[in-house]
Amino acid sequence: MSNENAALRLIFPQWQGGNNPPYYLGSQMLEWLAPETTGIVEVVNVTEPKPENSALQVENGIRGRSAIKLQLLDAQRRIHKHQPESITVLGGDCLVSLAPFAWLQEKYGDRLGVLWIDSHPDVQTPAQFANAHAHVLAALMGIGDTGLTSAVKSPLAAEKIMIAGIHDPLPYEEQFIAEHGISICSPHDVRNGAEKIVNWLKEQQIEYLAIHIDLDVLDPQFFRSVLFARPGRGADEFGHVAEGKLTIADVLNIVGKATAQAEPVGLTLAEHLPWDALNLKHMLEQLPLLGGRDKISLSVTD
Predict the structure, then answer these.
(1) What is the CATH architecture of 7-276?
(2) Per-residue pLDDT tens for 31-45?
């Protein structure tokens, strides 16, 4: 990567795709925690969630569609300005991977593979679910609402996708994966060597890799800054939605094995929900001599 704009770091605190205001602070904290970069940094324009703007309307089957489209266009503009060879994204909800991965797919074509490390496949459409963070991988394949798929000039082929950490998909998701022939690696397979990932990379002759890490792939018993570790949650609050079963060591092992075979050109960290920090922030806003700012709602809506 020889040109000075080769590496782009995108700070993308999108919360509307998951209809979950705390993703905003989650992205900001990832930015603070991440090692410094010598590359270009851009911050996507996302409205900070406040009580007066956090109630999103469903438009054309997608909650917060207008805001999501504006943020998608802003992300595209920032990416195209720099013409990067690699992109790191610190989100925000899972939809933040749409513009960056679409760019990488257009740039690298069938030499690019997408390693989607997630408990969920994110292949739904407005017909199944209104929250667009569950639509992103289907949108990268050119499937779903045109407000999302319009960003994808070169749809991602199903055989270039590997979903790692997935288990117990919903019926529609299971059918979609089967019909399109998407490769998967279960938590059990991950812990037993993850050879499916290595074999997929070799069979598909993948030279470049875009890696999406949804932090809720991590077991909430051991990593608490995810949706499923929300303090005070009910045992059945999330219904039949799969909860993470991997550890940080599992994720690092997957990434290490994959990047030994293909050059990483994309990396997303998404769905960071630092509950203790959020609750402490809420407390600080209400203490004497510290308060005065508008309060971010800590409610989670599905």
Answers:
(1) 3-Layer(aba) Sandwich (3.40)
(2) 999 999 999 999 999
